[in-house]
Amino acid sequence: MQATTRRITTASLFLIGFTSIQVQAQNNMGIGTASPDASAVLDVVSTNKGVLVPRMLDSERLVIPNPATGLIVYQTNGTAGFYYNAGTPATPSWIKLSSGVVAVADGGTGATTASGARTNLGLGTLATLNSVSSNEITNGTIVNADISNAAGIDGSKIAGNIEGKAVNVTGVVPLDHGGTGQTTQSAALNALLPTQSSNSGKVLQTDGSNATWVTPSTGGGQVFAITTFNPITQIVEQKAIMLTATSGQQPPFIMPASGTCDVIYLEDVSQANQASTECKAELYKNGVATGLAVRVVSATTSNAKTAGSATGSVSYVMGDVLTFGVSSTNTTPNVRMNISMRCR
């Protein structure tokens, strides 16, 4: 009786197992499905159980014919682990299932947090893996990894903006790039002025837009020169001025350096009898009266000279234009005056 019962039980288990597995003609099978995928040796469908997948070498995985999307195998050599096809059967794309931290060298971030990833990839202020080598940028083009305001960069020689000032540039900037083409202040001034060749003794005159060299007007026989007496520079008249009621401003000087004018001197040098007249000389800077002026009443007899001076303080810088404005009270005086100015 017991033997009979055993046979029935064994037969029943065989029938149950047979009906749970669908064997297809293409030598693959499905568990839990009546139509297993043709690219799979075993197609398992379940919502509460797992599966033990095939193990193989990477060379074997790469030659699986037309692998289904989602096909998974376990690679035993090289970078071992689970791999699945994220591509199509025609164009496979095998991706390794990973867990934990993936190193930067393997295409990961080497970190488990966003801030750590930014640091490792050189995307943050605390980047540690942002070194630059000849593989990325030619050697010598970057001085160091921490380029600060004071750091120079070979080839560009640029230092950063500091306190709102313009970028400091080392080297010569040509005229057509907004520079002077020179390395010294005096050379830069000469480079920016109209050419000085063959213009000795001339002065710059502007029309409001452009400056050109012109021969100074000598009106009334008056000519000025700049004479240096160390440490004082004096503007002196070489010829006397024949004063009229409309003598006006005399030819100008363009000052070659900064300084201060502090004394103006006016002297009557007439040699003939003349009517008494009050003569005035005043210093002008850039066409504007400075208030530094002297008045002298001429003598009425021959060779009876009179003179006068005034003191003050008129500062100027290189490039300022100084001149004298002269006048007299009579309309047609026969008066000749010498004017001089002390500038330190």
Short description:
By secondary structure, the protein is mainly beta.
Fill in the keyword field for this structure.
5-stranded antiparallel beta sheet; Jelly Rolls; mainly beta; 6-stranded antiparallel beta sheet; 344 residues; 4 helices; disordered N terminus
The average pLDDT is: 70
Helix and strand composition category:
mainly beta
Fraction in beta strands: 25-35%
Order of helices and strands: HEEEEHEEEHEEHEEEEEEEEEEEEE
Q: What is the CATH topology of the domain at 224-343? A: Jelly Rolls
Name of the top-level CATH class of the domain at 224-343: Mainly Beta
CATH architecture of the domain at 224-343: Sandwich
| Gross geometry | rod-shaped
User: What count of helical segments does DSSP give?
Assistant: 4
Biggest sheet descriptor = 6 strands, antiparallel
Distance between the termini: 141 Å
| Radius of gyration (Å) | 50 Å
The total beta strand count reads 22
Structure description:
- This protein is mainly beta.
- Among the domains are: 18-49, no CATH class; 224-343, Jelly Rolls.
- It has helices at 2-20, 58-61, 114-120, 185-192, and strands at 21-23, 29-31, 42-44, 55-56, 72-75, 81-85, 94-96, 158-159, 168-169, 203-206, 211-214, 224-229, 232-237, 241-242, 248-249, 253-254, 259-268, 278-285, 288-297, 307-316, 321-328, 336-343.
- The strands form six sheets. Strands 12, 13, 14, 17, 20 and 22 form a six-stranded antiparallel β-sheet that branches. Strands 15, 16, 18, 19 and 21 form a five-stranded antiparallel β-sheet that branches. A four-stranded mixed β-sheet has the order 4-5-6-7.
- A hairpin with a 2-residue loop joins strand 12 (224-229) and strand 13.
- The longest helix is centred in the first third of the chain and has 19 residues, at 2-20.
